[in-house]
Structures are given as C-alpha cells and as structure tokens.
Amino acid sequence: xxxxxxxxxxxxxxxxxxxxxxxxxxxxxxxxxxxxxxxxxxxxxxxxxxxxxxxxxxxxxxxxxxxxxxxxxxxxxxxxxxxxxxxxxxxxxxxxxxxxxxxxxxxxxxxxxxxxxxxxxxxxx
Length: 125
Known about the structure:
Layout: E1 25-30, E2 37-44, E3 47-54, E4 58-66, E5 70-78, E6 81-88, E7 94-99, H1 103-117
Antiparallel strand pairs: 1-2, 2-3, 3-4, 5-6, 6-7
C-alpha cells in the first residue's frame, strides 16, 4: 500500500536524534500537529518511535517501544480525531492522535504492527 498522507509524496529526513545510522524504516504515520510541532510514528526494524519535530526545539523522541516489546496495535475513533495505540507486552500503550482522514493508512499501520508482533516477516522495501 502506498502512503496516501500528504498527497502521496511524503519525504521526511530523520536525523541521528531519532534513528540509528543502520536502522531500517518500514513505515511512517503522520500524526496530528500540536501547536508548532509535527508528530510522527516511525516503525523500524528495531523499534516503534514517537518522534516530534518542533520549529524551535528540533527533533525529539517522545516515546519508543523496542520491537520485542510490541504486543500489537489498535485504532480507536474519537469524536473528530482517531488514536493509534501501540500495545506493549508490559506497561501502558504508546498512543498517538491522528486525523480521521488517514483511517485507511492507520489500519495499514495497525495491521503491520500486529503482523510484526506475531513474528511475521518484515515488509519488502
């Protein structure tokens, strides 16, 4: 499935503050903006990262779940937004807010996380 976010031509350069040099990105989910910050859920071969980019603060990792600790994911509709929950084997889930216009892509992200948590093969690049 091609990423339909932002007109399908999504290019994001993630710096060392977010990813290790040899980390492979499987998919990216653009989350809801908060003030001057853009949020992303980045699924890699090692972990799931909730990254923020703030105009004045730069890149920050807000939360992350190591791949071995991912127990699955779910999508929840809330009034005018949605939420993607990344469930941990132990502890509270990592939750990000998303626009409901991206619900098909959110479903793809949830399916991918469930597949990887069940021990499935990574997606082809």
